[in-house]
Fold each of these.
Amino acid sequence: MKKKAPVVKSQEFEATVIDLTYDGNGVVKFDDFPIFVTNAVPGEKIIVGVTKVTTNYGFGRVVKRLVESADRNADIDAKVLQSGVAPLAHLTYEAQLKHKQKQVADVFNKQHVAVNVAPTVGMDDPWGYRNKAQIPVREINGELTTGFYRRGSHRLQPMEDFYIQDPEIDKAIVVIRDILRKYHVAAYDEQNHKGVVRTIMVRRGHYSHEMMIVLVTRAKRLPTSEFIINDIREALPEVVSIIQNVNQEKTNVIMGDQNKVLWGEKAIKDTLLGKTFAIGPNSFYQVNPAMTEVLYQTAADKADLKPTDVVIDAYSGIGTISLTIADRVESVLGVEIVPEAVDDAKRNADLNGIKNAKFALGKAEEKMSQWAAEGLKPDVIFLDPPRKGLTQELVDAAVEMGPQKVVYISCNPATLARDAALFVEQGYEVTGDVQPIDQFPQTTHVESVTVLERKA
C-alpha cells in the first residue's frame, strides 16, 4: 500500500531548521517526514508553509521567521535568492565555508573512508568573481530582455546585476541588450523555436581585461550585424573578439557547433600562474581565476613534484594543469576527449614555449589502459574529471600503472568519495587532509584536492 505523507499542500506548522541540503535548502521534519524549505538556515525557528508533497518528502516556504540564525546573511536582495544565481547567499560567508567543509566530510563518512577534511579555503571578496557569463535572451512585455531563470523554473527573471559575475561583464550585458533593442533584433522564442538571439555570452580576462562577446543565434544570419558590431566596439573598448555562435537545435544546450568571427580575434588571452592561455568561445576555462590559481597551486604542492617526475594529466582540457606544472617535472602527458581542447592545449604549450608537455586525443580510460599495456609508469597522475567522476576502467588503468601518488581535483564531493573508495580497495590510501576550496562562492558547488598514495 502507498505510504501516506503526514502533511498536505498549504498546511502550516512550526519547526526548527535542523540541516542544510546540498542545494542550499533548509531541512525541517514533521513526524520524521523531511521537508525542504528555501531560504531557511539551520537553527532558525520558522512557520513552514507546505508547497509540494511527494511520497517520501515535501517542499516548503518560510511563512514567518520566529527566531533568526546568526549565520543568516540579512543583507541579501530577495531577487538574488529567487533567481538561482546565488543559492547560498542567504548564509554568511563563514557559514557557507563551514557548510562546504561538512558536505565533503559527510560523503566520505557515507563511503566509510576515514579522512580529515580541512577548513574550506575561501576568498577575501566572495562576489564579482566570474570571468564568464551566459545570459539567456527572451522577450518580456514585447521587449528583448536579459536575466536569469527563477529558481526551479524556466521562467526568465529580468536582472542587470548578477552579483557573482565580474561587474564589467554585467555592464557589457546591459550595453549589448540595449544595442540589440535599438536594432529591433528578435529575442529567441523557446516555445515556438523562433526569433534570433538565444544567449549573450561574455568572457573577460581576469588579468588581461580582454573581452569576448559571443551572440548565440537560432538564425544563421544576424540582421544588421554591421551596425551591432560597430556599436559594441564603440561602447566597450575592452572587446577584442565578437563571435556569432549558431545553434539551430531545439535544445537546452547553450552553444552550437558553428562559430563565425564577426570581428577581431577568435580567442582572448589571459594568464594563470604565470602562463598564458588562449581562450576560445567553446574552451573550458575555470570561471574563477583567482581561486583556480589557489586550487592548482594546492594540487601541485600536495603532489610534492620532483624534477624527475613523469606525470599524466587526465581530463587535461586546454592544458591548464599540465602547463602550470610542466616546469616542475620531467614530462607531462595530457589526455582529453574534446578535439578542440586538445588543439587549444597544444597551441597553449607553443604559446608558452613548453616542450615537455604532450597532449593526446581520446577517452581518458582508453588511453590510460593503452599506456598501461605499453608499460608507461608515471610517478604522479592528476585527475580532474567532470561532475560524474571516474569510471571503474579509469581507476583500474591508473592502479595498473602503479603511480606513487594520485592527485584528485574534484568538483563533486559525492563522486570524489565514491572514487576514493575504489582506490582504497586497490591498495591506495588518502594521505594528508582533503582540502576543500571555494571556487564558486554563494553557490552550492565546492572544489577539493585529495591525494591518494600507494601503500608500501
Amino acid sequence: MHLLITRPARQRYVELAEDMAAVFRERAAEHDRTAAFPFRNIDELRAAGYLALTVPRELGGLGGTLADMAVAQERLAAGCASTALAVNMHLSMAGQMARAWRTTGDERARKTLTEIVEGRVILMGATAEPGHALVRTTGAKARKVDGGYLVTGDKTFGTGSAVMTHMTSMAEYREHPDGPHVLVFRIPADSPGVRVLEGTWNTSGLRATRSENIELRDVMVPEENVLTSYPVGSLDGSLLQTVWGWAMPTFAAVYLGVAVGAFETCVRDVRSRGWEDRPYVRAEIAACEELIETSRALVERTAGEVMGNGLWNALTIQQGMARAVLTKNVGTNNAVEIVDRVIRIIGTPALRPGSLYERAHRDVRAGTMHPYSNADACDLIAATTLGEETAPVHPPRLDRLAEPAPEAEAAVEAAVEAETKAGDTAVRPAAS
C-alpha cells in the first residue's frame, strides 16, 4: 500500500477500505469487461459497515469525517474504480446528512442515518442534465399541488441507480414568490413516476458504475421532502456546504486512487524486472510521487476547510466554490498524468485490453469531464482570481455547521483503540 500517515481511527478506515479493495481488485476486470454493476461488492461493503463510514458513531456508524472518507475512498478506488465512485455518492450524502443532524437535530435525518447503519438505505443523486452541469439551473419542472410538487424531467449520470433506495434531485419551480427557484429534494427511488432507463450507460470508462439515465414523470415530491431552494442561476451557499463541498475533494480522491493503484502495481513490476536503476524510470517514479502528494495535500486542506466552516466564512461563496473545484481539478488531472507516466514506464504491455493499466487509462479520464469539468473549472477559477463575478450569490441558510468536537473525536479514537485491543474486527469479504 502506498504510504499514508494517519491517526488511529483513520488508519482503521484505511485498512478496512484496503481489505475490501484487495478482493474487489480480483473482480474488477470482469465487471469492466461485461459492464456489470458490482452488486456483490456493495453487499460486502454493507456487511463490513463501510456504507456507514460517515454516519456518526453515536448513531451506530463509523464516525468518519470528510477527510477520513477521502483517504478511505482513495484506497477503495485503487481496487475498483466503479465500486468506489458508486459508493462515493452515498457516503457523501450520508456525511452531509450527518452534519445537518448534528447542527439542527433533525429527526428525519437521524432516522435515515440509523437506517443506513441497518443496511436499509442507500443514497444517490440524480441532478445532472445535458446543458445543466453546474446545477445552477435545471430542465426539470416542478408544478405546485396540494401537499407538494409534481416533478417532470430527465436526468443523466445516475451513478448508483442500480442499488439506490433514495435519490436526491432538483427541478425548477417557476411560480416561486421570489422568482424562479431550483428546488432540491430527496424521495424514495421507488416513487411512482421514477424510472431508471437501463441500457443508457455505454462508455469506455467506469463501465461498471451503470450510471443510467433516469426519467421523472409527474413524480410527487411532498413539501417536507424539499431540502433547500435557491434562485435560478445563482451560486448557492448551502450547496457549497453540502454537494460541492463534499463531492469535489472526494471525487479527486477516487480518481487519484485509481492512479495510485496503477502506480503501486507499476512499482512492483519495475522491481520484478530489475529496472530500479534506470534513470528514466526513477525520474518518472519521483514525478508520480510528487503528483500524488500534491493532490493529497489539497484534498486534506479543502476537507478541513469544509468541516471547519472556513470554505464559506473565511472566503466568499464564489471563492469557496473555486477552492473546492480547484481541488477536484488538480486531483483528477494529476491522476491522468500519473497513469500516463506509468504507461510510459511499463510500455506496450500496459495497453493490453483487460489489464489493470489499460483500465486505469480509461477510468481516470472520466475525471476530467466529471462536473466540474476541466473547462468549467478553469472558467470559475480564472474568473475568481481576476475578481469577476460568475453568478449572483445566494447565501447559505446557516453560517456555521456543527464541527466535530475535540472531545467527540477523542472518544472515537479511544473507542477504536479499545476495540482494536479487544480484537474487534469488521466483517471481511470472501475472496472470489
Amino acid sequence: MPGRMGLALAGAILVVAAVLLPDRAEAQFGLRGGPVGVARFAVGHVIGLSRLRHSRMAVRGGRYRSAALRSQDPRGADRSQLSNPYVMRAALTAQAALAGWQGGRRPQGWWRHPDGSYGWVGPVFWPFAHDDLTNAIIFGDTTSLSLYGYGDFYAALFTPYAATELAAYTVPPGRRARKVPTAETLCEASDTGGLPVERIASAVAPNEAQRTALDELSSAWNAARDTIRTACPAQTPGNAAERLGLMRERIEAMIKAIDTMEAPLSKFVGLLNDDQKARLNALANERRAALASYQSKNADKNDIKNASKNADKNASKDAQAAKACQADYDPVSDENAQRQYEQLLQQQWPAADIATTLHLDEVARARFEVLQDTTLRTMQTLSACPTEPAATPQARLAAVKARLQTMLQAVGAITDAFDDFQADLSDEQKAGFEAIGPKRGA
C-alpha cells in the first residue's frame, strides 16, 4: 500500500477509534445499538478511502477548479482524458461547496465526506444523486452512496453556511454567479451522465426486441433523472427544519426515480439469456479494474518509493480496521478509544454550551438530548461493513432502495425530535441555534 495512502489510512483509523462508544457516553446519551455498530460505521468509511486516495490531491491541486465553478456544463472538462470519477466528484463538490463558505477562503470544510466530496453544497443536498444510482445499480459501485448518513444529518442541523453565504447560491446568473454557482447550476452540472446505453449494448449484443427494451430503459432512466432534478431547491432553506425537509424531498425523489427504473430494468434483463446476463454483470468488474488501473498509473513516485518501507505497518492497520467488522469485536475494552470518543463527542455535540448559550430549561435540555440521541443512532442504522454487491442489477436496485428508505425513516425521526426540541423555544433561541453551525467554521 502506498505510503501517503498509509498516512491517510492511519488518520482514518484514529477516526475509527475516536467514534467508539464508551459505557459512560452510552449511558449519558442513551444511544441504543452499542459501540460495535458505531465502530462498523466508521470502518466502512475507512475501507472506502483505499480507492479514493487521489480525491483530496485533485481538490488541493485545483485540477477541475474552473470546471466546477463555471456556469456552463462542466462535463466537457478533460473529457478527452481518462478521468477517475471520484476525483471529478470530489473536485466539483469541494470547489462548489467552499466557493460560498467563509468567502471561499477555506481549504476544506468540517462537513466533508471521507473521500473529499461534500453531501451538502450550499443549499443543494446530494449532488450526483442520479449518477450514484447508476453506479450502484448498473456497476455495483455503492462507494459514494454509502458515505451519506450521520454527517449529513448533523450538517442539516448545524449548517456550516451563514444566511448570506447561502444566498449567494441563489443569485441570478451574472458576474458573481461565476464565482458561486447557483443551485440550479449545481443540480445540472452534477449529473455527469445517464444510463450507459451503448456500453450495455456493446456488452450484451442485444437482438431487436432486447434493443427496444434497452431504449425503453434508457427513457425511464432519463425520466428518473428529471424526477431528481425537480427536487433541486428553488429557494435557500433558511433553517434546520427546512434543511431536513429538503433532505426528505431529495431522498423521496431518489426513491421515486428508482420506482421509475424498476419495471423497465426487469423487462430488459428478463429478455437476456444467461450468457448476456453474465456479460451485463461483468460491467461492474470492468469498472473496478479500470479504476484500479487508473490509480496505479497515477500513483506518486514518492508513494511507490515508500510502499515497501510502509507495507508491514499498513498491513497491521488494515487488520485493525477489519477487526472491527468481526461479530465478537468489543471496542469498549479500549480505554484510549473511549477517551478519544468522549473528546470528539464533546467537541461535536457541546450540549452544555448549547444549553447555556440558548438558556435552555430542563425540558428543553432533555429534548435536545433526545435529538442528539436520535441523530447519533443513524451511525448504526446506516452502517455496514463492506460487503460484496448483489449479483444482479435488480437485486442491487432493491438494496439501494432499501437503504434510501432507511435514510428516509432516519430523516423523519430526526425531524420529529427536532420539532419537539424547538416547540417551546423563543424566536431568539431559535436564531441562536441557527448561528451555531456557521460559528463553527469561523
